Amino acid sequence: MPWSSFLIIFGCCAVSMYICRVLPAFAFAGKELPAGLVKALNYIPVAAFAALVANDLVSVEAFAAGLWPAMLPFAAAIPVVIVALKTKSLAICIIVGVACYALLLLI
């Protein structure tokens, strides 16, 4: 790839990053957002975490290995959901999930 093509691609990426990340921060600095927008933005971390968890729970390869390997993440997720509802702590949920998964692997 010639340097001119690389610089064009790099420049387009830099401009896109600036427009998407830096410009909104400057545009909304010091301004109060509407309550509905703030409420909607509060769902972003929960949705991202749910997407990551769902991606790890459902695996086609695990079902090919048998029913128990496929159900192992779901069995470990049950105590995590209970802990999440009680404590609302992500750190405790991670610790409980890893511990439950490790214990189920030993069985």
Provide a descriptive summary of the structure in words.
Helix content is 84%, strand content 0%. It has 107 residues and is mainly alpha-helical. Helix 5 (67-87) runs antiparallel to helix 6 (90-106). The longest helix has 25 residues, at 3-27.
Distance between the termini: 53 Å
Mean pLDDT: 86
Name the structural class. mainly alpha
- Specify the number of helices: 6
Number of domains: 2
Query: What amount of the residues lies in strands?
Result: under 5%
Segments where pLDDT lies below 50 for 5+ residues?
Answer: none
How would a crystallographer describe the biggest sheet? none
Radius of gyration from the alpha-carbon trace, in angstroms: 21 Å
Please provide the ordered H/E string of secondary-structure elements: HHHHHH
Question: Would you summarize the structure shown here?
Answer:
The chain is mainly alpha-helical and 107 residues long.
Chain-wise SSE layout:
Layout lengths: L2 H25 L7 H7 L2 H14 L2 H6 L1 H21 L2 H17 L1
Helix pairs in contact: 5-6
List keywords for this structure.
mainly alpha, 84% helix, 107 residues
